[in-house]
Amino acid sequence: MSGKKLLILAAAAVVLVLLAVVQRRFFNRTSVEPAGPSYLIEGFDPDSIDSIVIGVGAEAVTIKRGAKGFVVVNKDGYPARAEQINELLGSCMDIRTEELYTDDAANHEDLEITEEKADSVVKFLQADSSVLTGVVIGKAREDGTGTYVRLVSSDKVYLSSKRPWIKDKALDYIEQELISLERERIEWVTVDSNDGKYTLKASEKSEKIVLEDVPAGKQLKTSDGESVFTALTSLRFDDVNKASEGLNFVQEYACKLTDSTVYRLKLAEKDDKTYATCRAVFTDKSPVMKEKGVEFEEELKKKEAKLLARDKAMNFSARHKGWVYEIADWKAKNLTKKLSELLEERTEEPEKTADPNAVKADESAPPKPKEAESVEEKAAGLSSEPDDPEEPEADKAREPNEVEAAEPEATKPTEPNAVKAG
Questions:
Q1: Residue of 313, 330, 335, 170 whose CA lies nearest to 241
Q2: Quick check: 283 and 262 in contact, CB under 8 A?
Q3: 9 in any annotated domain
Q4: Same structural domain, 227 and 94
C-alpha cells in the first residue's frame, strides 16, 4: 500500500473519531434528575379546598369553607379573616426546595418531620375529607442553612432555605377588633353601671369632655372620664363563643356618633371575666326621598352619607348577633366604671389678693405733669384741672359763630329795646 493511501485512511479514521465524540456528546447524554422541585407544592387549585387543618390532635385548628366564606370550627363557626387564609395559602405555596435530603421514612423522626413531632403541619382537604395536599415542616438543619420540609403524601424530605412560619391558634384567623371609632365623631357616652347611670358629652368649647349633673362639691376626674369616653375607639376581644345561658347582662355602655349611629354593649361579669354582646342602631328614622327637580351636590352627599351609615349599622348588628365576646379586664373597666370612681372633691380657686408692693409703687410714683395728660382724658372730663386756670369755665367768652344750646324761655336775656311788661 502506498504512502498516499495510508494518509487517506488515517484522515478518515480521525474524522470517524470526531463524529463519534460529537454523537456521544449530543445524542447519548444521560439526563440528570433534579434534586427536587423548585416549589414543594405544584399544580394546586385553592378553589378546590373544602377545609384546612392546622396542627394535629386535640390542638388542631379546623377552618371550613361556608356559604359566605371560611369559618373557624373551633370557635363555633365564627367568620375567619380572608386575609389570614390567603396568608396561610401563600406561606405554604411559596415553600421553595434547595435539595433532596432523604427519601427514607426511617429518618423522619430524627429530622422531626413526622406529624407528631413536626413544628407545623397543614392539610388542605376536599369535601370528602381526602387530602388534596399539605406540608410538614420539621426542624432546622444543624448548621442553620435550611429547614426540613416534605409533602404530607410523600416520604421525600427536602431542604428549604427559607423557613415558613405558620400560625397555629384559632384566634390567629379571626378579626379580634370589635369596634373602632374616631374620637372626634363621638357625641356622647352613657354608662349604666351597678351604682347608677351617667352621661359624658363632648364639649362644644374645647376638646375636653363634660359630665352631666355633677353632684354638688364634686368634679370629674379628667383622665378617667376620657378613658370611659374613648373606650370604643379601639375595642378588641380575647375570645368569642356562641351566646349561652348563665350570663346576666345587667350593665350597658352606649355611644352615640354625630351621624346618629348608637353602639350599645350589654355587659355581664362571671368568674372575674367580663362578657359583652353588641349591636348598632341608626336612630335617624326620617326617610331619604328624592326631591323634585335638580338636587344640589351637597344635599346628595348628605343623603348618601345617611344611607351608608344606616347600612353600616345594620350590617354590624347582623354580623355580631348571637355572639358573646370576652373583653380584657383592663378594657372592661372603662366600659363598666361607676360614677363614684369618676368623681373627686372640687378644688376651690384661691382668692386673688392685691400685691402690697404694687401699692407702694403707685404711692411712690411722681405725679403726672399736666402736659402729659392725654387728649382722651380731657375729652372725657377726667382732667383734675381746667384747661386755663386763670379763666374760670363760666367766664369763657362764646365764639361768635357758636350755636347756642336750646334753653328755656325764662332764662333768655332781655332784648335792649324790649318794652317791660306792666
A1: 170
A2: yes
A3: no
A4: no
Judge whether 262 and 254 are in contact, CB under 8 Å: yes
Residue 97 CB neighbour total at 10 angstroms: 22
Could you tell me if 339 and 207 lie in one domain? yes
Query: Amino acid identity, residue 356?
Result: P
**147 in the same domain as 208:** no
The rounded distance, in Å, linking the Cα atoms of 374 and 383 is: 9
pLDDT, residue 206, reads 74
Predicted local distance difference test score (pLDDT) of residue 207:
79
Give 55's Cβ-side CA count (13 Å radius): 13
Q: Which of 87, 79, 101, 76 is nearest to 54 (CA)?
A: 87
Q: pLDDT value at position 7? A: 52
Q: Which three cell numbers stand for residue 253?
A: 355602655
CB 232 within 8 A of CB 255: yes
Domain of 100?
46-173
pLDDT value at residue 294: 63
Give the number of residues written for the chain.
Answer: 422
Q: Which residues of the chain have pLDDT under 70?
A: 1-37, 291-294, 348-422
H or E element, residue 86: helix 82-93
Q: What is the pLDDT of residue 23?
A: 45
Collapsed DSSP state (helix, strand, coil) of residue 68: coil
Could you say which of 173, 204, 235 is where a domain stops? 173
**Are 201 and 238 members of one domain?**
yes
